[in-house]
UniProtKB/TrEMBL annotation:
<keyword id="KW-0012">Acyltransferase</keyword>
<keyword id="KW-0808">Transferase</keyword>
<dbReference type="InterPro" id="IPR022450">
    <property type="entry name" value="TsaD"/>
</dbReference>
<protein>
    <recommendedName>
        <fullName>tRNA N6-adenosine threonylcarbamoyltransferase</fullName>
        <ecNumber>2.3.1.234</ecNumber>
    </recommendedName>
</protein>
<feature type="binding site">
    <location>
        <position position="199"/>
    </location>
    <ligand>
        <name>substrate</name>
    </ligand>
</feature>
<feature type="binding site">
    <location>
        <position position="122"/>
    </location>
    <ligand>
        <name>Fe cation</name>
    </ligand>
</feature>
<feature type="binding site">
    <location>
        <position position="118"/>
    </location>
    <ligand>
        <name>Fe cation</name>
    </ligand>
</feature>
<keyword id="KW-0479">Metal-binding</keyword>
<feature type="domain" description="Gcp-like">
    <location>
        <begin position="31"/>
        <end position="129"/>
    </location>
</feature>
<dbReference type="Pfam" id="PF00814">
    <property type="entry name" value="TsaD"/>
</dbReference>
<feature type="binding site">
    <location>
        <position position="216"/>
    </location>
    <ligand>
        <name>substrate</name>
    </ligand>
</feature>
<keyword id="KW-0408">Iron</keyword>
<keyword id="KW-0819">tRNA processing</keyword>
<feature type="domain" description="Gcp-like">
    <location>
        <begin position="163"/>
        <end position="351"/>
    </location>
</feature>
<comment type="function">
    <text>Required for the formation of a threonylcarbamoyl group on adenosine at position 37 (t(6)A37) in tRNAs that read codons beginning with adenine. Is involved in the transfer of the threonylcarbamoyl moiety of threonylcarbamoyl-AMP (TC-AMP) to the N6 group of A37, together with TsaE and TsaB. TsaD likely plays a direct catalytic role in this reaction.</text>
</comment>
<dbReference type="InterPro" id="IPR017861">
    <property type="entry name" value="KAE1/TsaD"/>
</dbReference>
<comment type="similarity">
    <text>Belongs to the KAE1 / TsaD family.</text>
</comment>
Length: 391
């Protein structure tokens, strides 16, 4: 560890928590390469991610993805200062593949290994300054596009930072006091993630998988006000007040929304009427983004958060980016959105957080840790296990 470059560490990051095999390489806060192999097409006929298929796909894709990443970055394994790997949360089998690959590399090369939190890595990627952010100007139709907001950049965290992570497996609002050792979960979904709800509703509407892009596209042709779908956990008994918070003030629930869409379709079919798919898609999407953004902004306002990072695969959704931008602007909150290819699961975000840990002087995890599919967000990285004197 004494010879480790802590100023501008060259870190290789490995991501395998779901259906993307990602390998990224960063030097300090500069992104060198971000290589991703997705098994999404293999899951399409099932309408969702099948863990066993994802795990086998990681096995097939890891070595070619690693080789491509090293080639694009123009570095060798010998030049790498450290390795970082997602150790949770995620699919147990998928995590196991990435963790075992990372341990094998660490043992073979003698490089220090960092086991890090997938969710916090989504925030870490915002610190990379090696990608040009868009300029934040209004789009051609005059609407504010939060997708054009810049990432955090330059390796510096704003003082009062929050993160809204919305994906197929996660929907959380976090408060980040220190990205290396002080992350607090303010709210999360208590059942389906937002992206999971998109996939299930797309299946109900016959739109295929993945559901997010299909619903986003079709919703532009529909009327979001045609049907009022429920916003979960927004009743007073769940919300409470600012002075006396309810049990789910900053939490979400999407399972009831999915059921409401299914019942709506059934009613049209029972009456022998054509199902207004575009209107249902638009109304469903509006229900999701309305409750996600309203609760996220509420959490920011009540917890002194002045900067919000939007991440996760659903950050690609045009309506989510638009409404988040509008509501953050109204509340005086600065919104940050990394480039969309860095919002989805990738190895660059893992490498970015690994580099932050090294620059903060935090030690590696060793190779005795195990993947944790329910790893809490408060565990940014897994500390090395103490070795007993008898070992």
């Amino acid at each position: 560890m004494s010879g480790l470059n802590r100023q501008q560490p060259l870190v290789l990051g490995i991501e395998s928590s779901c259906d993307e095999t990602g390998v990224g390489i960063v030097r300090g806060t500069t992104l060198l390469t971000n290589t991703v192999s997705s098994s999404m097409d293999e899951h399409a006929r099932f309408g969702g991610v099948i863990p066993e298929i994802a795990s086998r796909a990681h096995l097939d894709a890891f070595v070619p993805t690693l080789q491509e990443s090293l080639h694009e970055a123009g570095v060798t394994l010998d030049e790498i200062d450290a390795i970082a790997v997602t150790s949770g949360p995620g699919l147990a089998g998928a995590l196991m593949v990435g963790v075992c690959a990372a341990k094998a590399l660490a043992v073979a090369t003698g490089k220090p290994l960092y086991a890090i939190n997938h969710l916090v890595a989504h925030v870490g990627v915002g610190l990379l300054d090696g990608r040009r952010a868009l300029d934040g100007r209004p789009s051609a139709d005059g609407k504010h596009d939060a997708g054009a907001a810049a990432g955090l950049g330059a390796g510096q965290l704003p003082e009062n930072l929050g993160a809204l992570l919305v994906s197929g497996g996660h929907t959380e609002i976090l408060r980040i006091r220190s990205i290396t050792d002080d992350v607090e979960l303010l709210g999360s979904t208590i059942d389906d993630a937002a992206g999971e709800a998109y996939d299930k509703v797309a299946r109900i509407l016959g739109l295929g998988y993945p559901g997010g892009p299909a619903i986003d596209k079709l919703a532009r042709q529909g009327n979001p006000k045609s049907i009022r779908f429920p916003r979960g956990l927004t009743q007073p008994k769940y919300m409470g007040t600012a002075g006396e918070k309810g049990p789910h003030r900053y939490d979400w629930s999407f399972s009831g929304l999915k059921t409401a869409v299914a019942r709506c379709v059934e009613q049209f079919e029972a009456r022998g009427e054509e199902v207004p798919v575009a209107d249902i898609a638009a109304a469903f999407q509006e229900a999701v983004v309305d409750v996600v953004t309203s609760k996220a902004v509420l959490a920011c306002k009540e917890n002194g958060i002045t900067d919000l990072l939007l991440g996760g695969g659903v950050a690609a959704n045009s309506r989510l980016r638009e409404l988040t931008g509008q509501r953050c602007t109204s509340a005086g909150i600065r919104l940050h959105v990394p480039p969309l290819d860095l919002c989805t699961d990738n190895g660059a975000m893992v490498a970015a957080l690994g580099a932050q840990l090294i620059m903060a002087g935090i030690g590696p995890s060793g190779v005795e840790f195990a993947p944790d599919s329910s790893m809490p967000v408060t565990t940014v990285s897994v500390p090395a296990r103490a070795v007993s004197p008898g070992r």
